Amino acid sequence: MGLDYPNLAVLHATPWSILWRGILTPYAQPYVVQLHYCAFSLQLAAIKSKTVHVEVLSPLLRRRAGAAGPEIPHIYPNPTDKTLPRLCLHMQHEWNPSMSIADTIVPWTVEWLAAYEGWRATGLWSAGGHNSERHVANL
Amino acid sequence: MSARKIGLNDVRDVLLADVAIRIQLPPSTYQVAIERVAKLAVWLDRPDSALKDAVDLVYPQGSMAINATIGSCLDRDEFDIDTIAQLNPRPGRTAREALDQLYRAINGTKGSRYYGMVRRNTRCITVEYADMHVDLTPAELIHGGEPRLSEIFHHRPEEPASLGRRVIANPFGFAEWFNDVTPRSAPFEAFFEAQSRTMDGVFLARDAAVEQVPEQIPAYRKPPAVVALQLIKRFRNVRYESRKGRRPPSVMLARLIAESGSPSGNPFDELFYQTRKLEDYFSAHQRRNTLIRVVNPCCVQDIFTDRWPISLEEQQLFLTDLAYLRSQLQQLEQGADLERISGVFSTLFGETVSKSVVTKFADRSGGTIAMGQLRSERGTGRIDLSRPGIGALAASTVAASQARSSPRHTFYGPGKK
Question: Most exposed among A21, B7, B219, B373, judged by the fewest C-beta atoms under 10 Å?
């Protein structure tokens, strides 16, 4: 991970948990993102075991047209901080801990951010996904 | 602006090029324009024409001759096609006579092909179509001077008692000069052509009875300065849409942009560079309380600024516009998401065009993600826009080893918003 994405620094590491934080720039807007993997569930932090939780720290994700606008697609709530929803990057069967995070979760985050920018600009989430009319990724 | 050089793989370059492509004369319309000019040339030579055997040549001039034609309206595609109708020299022909004669020759008699579509202007005759205006400027060749050095005619139709006057001009020489001195950039031109193919991949064969206007396929391989010229003209049109009076003339902008040289090689840096050079030029004159004076480099009597600016206030207004354009580009250079870019482009180039360009880009990009074909650069996450269908860049600036696609996946969670 460190070799592929030196911008993503390890903030915290234990034998069962690791936290990265750093900058990804899909187009021309840099985003500070945080990735957290834990082998165990941490109920207080709303961390599910063997899952990478991805949050966008800056700029904060926003609905279109202000707070009353439509909800941001493909996120799930973060009970510990409502301003930092977590990104729905994949179906459960599409990732497991044997897979490289640098080869999967990070580029999927880039794709999510690109799709989010397109949605912010146009109101359309055109990158497909579960429950989407443009769901062609697994055909 | 920082010294960072935006590569041809930058989203701001791709979107600026898309705007330039969206506002320019598209290939199909270009072909229609050629056919219409050819038909007009034949029409002028018909047996009962007032100018039978009197028109030597009809050839492109102005924006048409330097591949910089853009739409003249903000919210609909409408183009001005500028041509010269070169008349046999006839001593004693007055300006009023030349313009009236050309008007009558095209307009014809009631029920004929162009009857009622023709407008007599001060220096040209306009044939109005639904999607374009073809302007024919009558001219007489001056023998012994530069190639196609001519006299054109100036007569206001609302002053019928006046005979008008002749004005020396050399639009052909200017177009040749422009095309010669404008710096070329092979990577940029490949980029622009590739992008043009993505946006509008139809290239048509040409068959014109008149002298060939510049071919559209080479026209897509435009030097950076021509693309910057198109964008600055569009910006000017947006700023002057609701203002009264004359606009800064396109031919003046063309000369200033062509000779300022272009070291950049990509749309964003080129537009910024040319904007700053224009701002410096106008600012220097404004500080000295002098009006700019720009002439045709091939004909010093051909003064491009004879009708604009006529006051320091007019000049200051455009200088303020240029400063605004520069400041907006500087903001984008600092970093911006697609929504911000779309918003800034809307103020600079018009909302309809900008939203259309960003929507199409987002759709292309989203489609590539959905197909599992998006590639991003290791290290920064920067998306490789070189893939056909996203950015359509001919030669990627991201090394193949750096940009990789990822395994297929499905964005989970609620998506229909």
Answer: B373
Phi, psi of B149 (to 5 degrees): -60, 130
List chain B domain ranges.
11-330
Say if the Cβ atoms of B416 and A132 lie within 8 Å.
yes
The structure tokens listed for A41 are 């569930």
DSSP string, B331-360: HHHT---HHHHHHHHHHHH-HHHHHHHHHH
Restricting to B residues 55-84, those with a Cβ less than 8 Å away from any Cβ of A are: none
Q: A65 vs chain B: nearest CA distance in angstroms?
A: 11
How many C-beta atoms lie closer than 10 Å to residue B327's C-beta?
Answer: 10
Look at B410 and A71 and tell me if their CB atoms are within 8 Å.
no
The answer to whether A33 and A22 are in contact (CB under 8 A) is: yes
Does the predicted model carry a pTM greater than 0.90? no
Half-sphere exposure of B289 (CA within 13 A, CB side): 0
Q: Provide the shortest C-alpha distance from residue A48 to chain B (in Å).
A: 16
- With an 8 Å Cβ cutoff, is A5 touching chain B? yes
Grade residue B204 by pLDDT with cuts at 50, 70 and 90: very low
Residue type for position B55: V
Residue type, B120: R
Q: Is the pLDDT of residue B145 over 80?
A: no
Interhelix angle B351-370/B11-23, nearest 10 degrees: 130
Look at the block and give the residue holding tokens 């002028």.
Answer: B44
A 37-96 near B (Cβ less than 8 A): 70-76, 88-92, 94-95
* Three-state DSSP class for residue B23: helix
Q: Which residue has the tokens 């202000």?
A: A66
